[in-house]
């Protein structure tokens, strides 16, 4: 894993330069004229959620991905943010750097630590979506659309089936229901 300072920079580059993939486009000129952070958008994960739920989890709590499937999914999400951050690093002239590919492959490996289809989670969906974004920006065409199809199907599974289960548990986790529905609608746009 990169040192904390470099990891913070990579995350900042992702949120500043790579989040345009999730922008609700009005006109191409608005993208050119505006800072990406000020445009209306539907991101896979907000910057605040990323810092609180993912980044701090690994950089402040010294967690490992061995504890449960959710840990591995969060680790994959973390490395896809790093990969996209490195790929869009304005200090690097070569957009397809070896380091960004290294982070991409580590992210893919983290998602396979636990079987995704057996334990789908919101961080898994977010990681897969960012994996598709990376594949788009790095011009990796091999399985990009297949992966996006899997994201949509898993979104349906996680959003609808788990919402029903949560509703039957005396509304425990109501915020999770809203988050799942938000993710589903964003993946289907």
Task: Explain what the structure shows.
The chain is mainly α. It has one domain (4-143). Helix content is 64%, strand content 0%. It has helices at residues 4-18, 28-33, 47-59, 69-87, 98-111, 122-137, 144-167, 174-187. Helix 3 crosses helix 4, helix 4 (69-87) packs parallel to helix 6 (122-137) and helix 7 (144-167) packs antiparallel against helix 8. The chain is globular, with a radius of gyration of 16 Å. Mean pLDDT is 75; it is low at 23-28 and 168-172.
Number of domains: 1
Instruction: Give the DSSP E fraction (strand runs of 2 or more residues).
Output: under 5%
Classify the helix fraction into a percent range: 55-70%
Question: Which structural category do the helix and sheet elements fall into?
Answer: mainly alpha
Distance between the termini: 33 Å
**Overall residue-averaged pLDDT value:** 75
Radius of gyration: 16 Å
Low-confidence stretches at least 5 residues in length (pLDDT < 50)?
Answer: 23-28, 168-172
Taken in chain order, the helices and strands follow as HHHHHHHH
What general form does the structure show? globular
Strands, count: 0
Give the biggest sheet.
none
The count of helical stretches stands at 8
